[in-house]
Amino acid sequence: MSKPNRGRWEPGTSGNPAGRPSGTGQIGQLRAAIGERVPAILEKLINQATSGDVGAARLLLERVLPPLKAEELPVAFELQPGTLTARSAAILQEVASGNLSATTGTQLIAAIGSLARVTEVDELARRIDLLEARDARP
User: Fold this and answer.
1) What is the structure's pLDDT at 77?
2) pTM of the full predicted structure?
3) 45 by DSSP, 3-state: which?
4) CB distance 49 to 41 below 8 Å
């Protein structure tokens, strides 16, 4: 026996389909009030920044200029032929000797790990094809 669903909306049905108009809540009203005063606020901040207020200058610059991101320069080096393990060891040696950054070394070793997985899938597909070809012979 189920209870009657009195005073509740059906799932997916709103009691106010039009909804509350945007901008009528407290935050919308606050944004509108500040928005009217933005030119005066900016002028005051600029005056304070040019008068030596470091906090005002920092606030302005943080909003106008994006922060600089660290950028790694490309590094050319030659990986000797060999196993993927040997190549990873060579990369670790380059990091240890200071020729590669730790971040670059980590990324290269992760790339070698991805290559190993791709190589493994290719090898498995080749073996499956050989087995299927062998079993298909009369």
Assistant:
1) 77
2) 0.47
3) helix
4) no
